[in-house]
Structures are given as C-alpha cells and as structure tokens.
Amino acid sequence: MTGTFSQVGLLARRSVQRTLRQPAEYLPAIIFPLVMLTVLVGGLRPSADLPGFPTESYFEFALAGLFIQGAITNGINSGNGLAFDIQSGFLRRLGLTAVRPAALLAAQLSGAAVVGLIQAVIFLGVGFAFGAEFESGMLGVLVIVGFMLLATMAFGAAGALIALKTGSSEAVQGIAPALTFLMFLSSFLVPRVLIEVDWFRAIASANPMSYLIEGIRSLVLNDWDPVALGRFLAVGGGMMLLFIAAASGAFTKRMAMR
Amino acid sequence: MSVSRARSTIGAVAWRNIYTTMKTPSLAVPPLMVPIFTLAVFAGGLSVMSRVPNFRFNGDYTAFTFIFVLVQAATMCGHFSSLAMTRDFETKFMRRLMLAVPKRWQIVAGFVVAAIVRCLVTVPILFAFGLLFQMDVQGDPIDLLKLTGLSVLVTVIAAFWSMGMGLRLRTTQAAPAMMMPIFASLFMAPAFVPLVAMQGWLHDVAEWNPVTMFVETSRGLISGDAQNVGATVAVGVGMILVLWVWLETGLRKAQAAGG
Fold first, then answer.
1. Which residues in chain A are contacts of B48 at CB distance < 8 A?
2. Which of A9, A17, A46, B247 has its CA 20 to 30 A from that of B207?
C-alpha cells in the first residue's frame, strides 16, 4: 500500500511538473473556454430577456459551461500526455518496474487536477470580476471547485482510456471536438425548457453533458437544488468510475501486450 | 500562348489541391462537417432566439441561422485551401513548384480556384441539409444564385487572408493564426440575432464589422427581401483588393525564403 502511494506521489509530481513547465499545454485549457464564453455571452445576451429564462444575466447562465469546457480541455490534455508517454516509450520502460495501473492513472489525474484547480480559481475570478452572484454562497463556490475537479477526473480518465487503447495523441485530440460538439448538443446554450425543437430537446435530455452543466449552473443561479446536484454526482461520478475502471483494464492489457 | 499556359498552370495547381483534399480526410471533412453540425445545433437548439425583442427576419430561425453557417462554411473553404498550401511548403513541394512556375501568382490563383470549387460543392450540400431541417426559403432562384455568388466572394476573401498568413509562416502550425481572426470576425457579426437586436459592446463592434454586411445581405436574399447586394459586392471587391497587397507581399516573402 505504501509502495502504491509512493508510486503515485512520484508519478504525480512528474505529471504536474511536466504540465506546469509547458504553458502551451495548459494555457489553451484556460484561454479557449474564456474566448468561447466571451463570444457566447456577447451573441446570446438577448436570450436573457425571454420569458421563462432562469436569470436576467446570460453571463451567469453561461458560466457553468465554462467549467465543463475547461474540464474537457484539461482532461484531454492529460490523456494527451499519457499518449505522449506511450509514443516516447516511457510507459514501456515504466512497465519494467513494479508500477500498478492505479498508481499511473492516479498520478495522471493528479496532474490534471492541479491544472483544474488553477482553472477553477481563474474562472471564478472572471465570474466575480464580471458581477456574477453565486446564489449558493461561498460554500457553493467551493462545491463548484469540487465539481470541476470531479469533471476533470472523468474527462481525464476518458482521455487516458483513449490514449491506452490507441497509443496515439492524434486519437486523443480527436475526441476533443467530439466532446465539444456533445456539449453544444446539451442545455449549454439555453435551458432545456426553452428548447423548442423536439428532437434537439430529446438529445439534450439524454445527453450527460446537460446534467454536468445544470449541476454547476444550479449552484450559480438557484441556491441549493438537490435534484440538480444529485444528477451531477450520479453522472459525473459514474463517468469517472466507469472510465477509470476501463482505463485500468486497458493499462493492464497494454502492459501484457508489451 | 501565355494565356493558355497560365490557364494550364492554374488548372493543374487547382486540380492537385482538389485531388489532395479528396484523398486527405483531415482537409476534406472539417469544412463540411463543422458547418453541418453548427447548423444542427443552432437551428435545433436556438430557435427560441427568434422570440427575443426586436428580432426581425422574414423567415424562420433555420433560414436565419443557415446564412451564418453558410458564411462560416465559405470562409472555411478558403482557409482549408490555404492550409493545403502551407502543407506544400512543409513537404518542400512548393519549392519545386516555384522553380517550375516563374509567374508565382498563377500558383496562388490555382489554390484560389480550388477554394472556389470547394465552395461550389459545399453550398448545395449545406442547402440540402438546410431543407432537411425544414428551412423556409422565400428567395427566388435568382436570389439563391446571388447568394452562391456572395459565398464565393467570401471564400476568396478568406483564402486571400489565410494565404497571406500562410505564405509568411509557411507551416501548418500557423493554422490557428490563419483561422482565429476569421473565427473572431464571424462571431462578432450578427450570428444569433439580427444587428438591431444585438446588445452591448458586440453590437458596436458588429456595426463596423464587414462580415455583418455579408451576413445581413445574404439573409435578405434567402428571405426574398434583398437589399444592398451591390454595396456588399463592392465592399467584397474592395476587401479583395486590399488583401491582394497582403497576399502579394506574402508571396514575395515566400519567394525570398526560397519556398
């Protein structure tokens, strides 16, 4: 057990250091969601005047998407790092040691979590700077940080799974647009109750991204909403456990192939 | 003789570009799939925007958003043709091409022709998807031809911009630098609501953004309420002339660097 913790510590430090040494790796995960937020808030601001819109500020409404977008970009970057380790032969060399799949995955996700924490602080700073009022208070703000880390772990594990299955950073990067598209097919842009087209509302309701976004959004707009929070935990936690289990299996298989 | 030689060179460069695109999914798929997806998301998810105060458009929201997507697709046709050119710089093919073609503008013209062909293929496909999403088209066939013409104009403008950048940087890693200004100018135009319904700083920016003119005129054409077509074409031609200088100086830089 101590050995596993020690492995996690060493590999996590390497993952964090590698990420922080390369601004090109983490800056897009911060800048891209902010650019997206600027564009959407600028263009969709009039929708806050619609009857039934949950807030008078589209900025507050769109803020939740920023955290999920950041988690996706960060998680994919983390998976990309693992794919690079596979391509460079680092994982092969690591296989000669007694490293456990859980240690490698935990370390990889720790690196993503550190960047996720930086992202969360910056995004919250942007929220406060532009006048967002978090209805759930400071405790809610802390829960948002926790939720973002959970989402980062889930998407990081998904990235790791693709990396371990394919061994290709191109393949990992290829799922980033797919996840972004999935996000747009959710309640990211307007609340589900205001989606008028039936097929789109059906897709948005079946899309797990809707529940991730709505969980965080509820903390910004609605005080404490147990249904939205419960759905977030069920979807986000479920995704994280599923992807971690699948990635661990893929890691063991890859090591056996070696 | 020189006219037929120029035509043959331009045709060969254009054909090679089109052929490469057909054989390279990373060049062929995004310019088509991204607009189709954007159309699905905007037409499906944002139709409620037609109820915001001051939303005035003589048609449904699918037709309204189709135009934005069409302009986006037209810019991508220009951009991805230019990206193919930067790829040729990386593989050193451009160096050999420049040795073989003394009049380098013919090479650039070949890539522009390829971009126009891409646009002429993309527009009907997008239109078919628009109809699939039950788009309400009120413009007559002449209006739709004019709409296609405006799309071609946008493609050429985007190609001139991207090629100017590509000729300076000569690497596919320049793709974000080539695309980001286009992306920014698109979303700083009336993307989701008409100019009159826009609010805040974006409204002020959109008023001065030339993309607004293309979007608003095109919306007029699809809704059978065309206005300012001549003025929009004049602005487009003016932009091409200005960007020609950008392209020409970029070409000189590429020549000086030896391709």
1. 47, 50, 190, 194-196
2. B247
CB-CB contact of B20 with B115 (8 Å): no
Instruction: Domain ranges for chain A, please list them.
Output: 2-257
- B59-81: buried (b, 16+ CB within 10 Å) or exposed (e) per residue? bbbbbbbbbbbbbbbbbbbbbbb
User: Chain A residues with CB inside 8 Å of B197's CB?
Assistant: 46
More confident residue, A244 or A91: A244
Residue B32, Cβ neighbours under 10 Å: how many?
19
Indicate whether this complex's ipTM tops 0.90.
no
Residues 6+ apart with CB under 8 A from B2: none
Distance, first Cα to last Cα, chain B:
27
Each residue's pLDDT tens digit, B25-84: 777 777 788 899 999 999 999 999 999 988 989 889 999 999 999 999 999 999 988 888
Which of B40, B48, B191 has the CB atom closest to A50's CB atom? B48
pLDDT given at position B127: 96
**Chain A interface with B: residues with Cβ < 8 Å:** 39, 42-47, 49-50, 181, 184-185, 189-190, 194-197, 199-200, 203-204
pLDDT of B36: 93
Q: Measured between alpha carbons, how far apart are the two ends of chain A, in Å?
A: 25
Higher-confidence residue: A20 or B59? B59
Domain boundaries of chain B, sorted by first residue: 2-256
